[in-house]
Amino acid sequence: MFDIDTNWSRYEHVTDSGILNQFFKEEHIESRERISEHIKRAFLSIIQTRIENNPVFEIPGARQFISNLKEMDDVVISLATGGWYESAILKLESAGIDTSNIPIASANDHYSRIEIMKIAEKRAVREEKVSFTYFGDGCWDLKACKELGVNFVLVGNKLEHNQSIMNFKKPREILKYIGL
């Protein structure tokens, strides 16, 4: 039996598929695709059970903020997550976040957070380069944004950043961070 180290900062790619890929390499595990699918199914089952017992709640104001953004003519939204698509949907649905008509890129699409972000942008904006803001809570989010030259808004207090929010209850302040 193997244990995956939960010190996320030690992983090159802090995404579900990135962590699993690195784990396979470090443990010299072959037949990765078959094992990966088995692990993913088990993980999703655990997430489903946890959500059934302890629902995921939205960050206060997030649902309304996303809804308001969806109504703006000059804004397009996409979601980029380092989680697998299926677990992200479970969590978003539990939190009551409507993801209809929102493109989502996830660890199903790529193991690299930077590539996931690029995929999310391409799915949302097919023609031209537009300003891009990423909301995240981890040092890996900030690092990816710096590398891509993307505007970053920190959600929570795990890090220090000049643009940070604890929740989405002050939409005017947040809209200033994203240039609206």
TrEMBL record:
Give the protein name, as stated in the record: Haloacid dehalogenase
Reading the lineage from the top rank, the first entry is Bacteria
Q: Which SUPFAM superfamilies match?
A: HAD-like
Recall the taxonomic lineage recorded for the source organism: Bacteria, Pseudomonadati, Pseudomonadota, Gammaproteobacteria, Alteromonadales
